[in-house]
Design a protein that fits this description.
It contains 7 helices and 19 strands. With 394 residues, it is an alpha+beta fold. It folds into 2 domains: 208 residues, no CATH class; 160 residues, no CATH class. It has a 19-stranded mixed beta sheet that branches. A hairpin with a 7-residue loop joins strand 8 and strand 9. It is elongated, with a radius of gyration of 28 Å. 14% of the residues are buried.
């Protein structure tokens, strides 16, 4: 009995000390004011309170963070409830350390305007980490049941992703963030894991922000490793990409695109440039094989959006008699070897006039299935055939 009374007394004393050192309403107002000053966006709360057991926690409901002024909706992010477990010892020492934040039933809208500006860009690009961020330490954030939507302002197309669960962990705002998530995209289950740069670096829009992520969906896998300069604006990429797909057509269909039945895919490339002018270099990709022709692609594309600076080498070969993937029966086709090179938008020189450039476009192909192979059932090479076309634009 005495022990129970002592325990109750201790809990009461703890509650009094917690309430004395920690005013949740004051903290919420202070945080909202600081976020407004640093981002220009509203941070609103419904109910604000705290609980003592099983551990001290700040409890927030109906949390909302404002969207850009031009946004299609008033809120960039909303959460039904946010629970923040607080280290009582750190609080009694005058420091705010949040051991775990749990966000449930949330929605996030990322969108661009017609000019490609993102609603995630806020504050000055050269601004450092805000003071309120440096004063708060968060060890871990977990998300449950989050509806994520991306909207392209130029096309009006929206892409929804449902995050079943996600976890972000870091020792402080200055430490790298460990990340893992389980989500569903277009009805397909996905898993992503890895690390990204510190929260302080992200908010400060620092150069060379590190990204090291690996994802998989069934037998398909994708990895992204490298850095992004000015990550809030997606300023400049330096990312090594690697992907493996069991079926190309099935993989690109997820993004609303179509592709011929080329079979499986594996490849690597380096993503460079900016969001406005992204480029791919060191392209090394292989399509098909295993009963269908194997196609290899090497080269670079300086600007994917403008389709310029293209220099691609294509080779294709079938070492055995084969049948197209779209044909289940019928005659087989003979072995062959072929190669082609495509160049477009490559500068040939300067004309001396400001803003005037010369370009060339050339397509060369050689190799064909041999007539003798078709007749005798053996591989062969017919006389080379080539096609060349040149065009200039100034």
């Amino acid at each position: 009995m005495a022990g129970a009374i002592a325990l109750v007394a201790a809990l009461v004393a703890l509650a009094i000390a917690f309430h004395y050192h920690f005013d949740p309403h004051s903290l919420a107002r202070s945080l909202a004011a600081s976020v407004k000053a640093d981002t220009g966006r509203e941070l609103e709360f419904g109910e604000v309170g705290f609980r003592l057991l099983p551990r001290p926690a700040l409890v927030l409901s109906e949390v909302r963070f404002g969207n850009a002024a031009w946004g299609s909706q008033p809120w960039l992010a909303q959460a039904g409830e946010v629970d923040a477990d607080i280290s009582l010892l750190e609080l009694l020492a005058g420091r705010l350390r949040i051991e775990h934040v749990e966000v449930t039933h949330a929605s996030v809208l990322l969108e661009t305007d017609r000019d490609g500006n993102g609603n995630w860009v806020m504050g000055r690009a050269d601004a450092g980490s805000p003071a309120w961020l440096k004063a708060i330490e968060i060890d871990e954030i977990s998300l449950e049941e989050v509806a994520f939507t991306y909207r392209d302002g130029a096309t009006g197309k929206t892409t929804p992703v449902h995050i079943d669960s996600a976890r972000l962990a870091a020792g402080s705002a200055a430490a790298p963030i460990r990340f893992d998530a389980r989500a569903a995209f277009d009805g397909r289950k996905m898993e992503v894991a890895g690390t990204i740069g510190a929260l302080a670096e992200l908010i400060a829009n620092a150069p060379a922000y590190p990204v090291d992520l690996d994802g998989k969906s069934g037998a398909a896998s994708v990895s992204v490793h490298g850095t992004i300069d000015q990550p809030r604006d997606f300023g400049r990429f330096n990312l090594a990409l690697r992907a493996q797909l069991p079926d190309v057509a099935d993989g690109v269909a997820v993004f609303g695109a179509t592709a011929p039945p080329l079979g499986s895919f594996s490849g690597t490339a380096q993503l460079t440039g900016t969001l406005a002018a992204p480029g791919l270099s060191a392209i090394d990709a292989t399509f098909g094989g295993g009963g269908t022709p194997e196609i290899k692609l090497h080269g670079a594309v300086a600007d994917l959006r403008a389709a310029s600076g293209i220099d691609l080498q294509l080779t294709a070969a079938a070492n055995e008699w084969w049948r197209p993937a779209t044909v289940s029966d019928g005659p087989r086709l003979p072995p062959f070897r072929a190669s082609a090179r495509y160049e477009a938008g490559l500068p040939r020189g300067r004309s001396g006039f400001e803003g005037r450039r010369q370009y060339r476009e050339r397509l060369a192909a050689s190799g064909a299935s041999g007539a003798a192979a078709a007749h005798h059932g053996q591989g062969g090479v017919a006389p080379d055939r080539s096609l060349a076309h040149r065009a200039r634009a100034g």
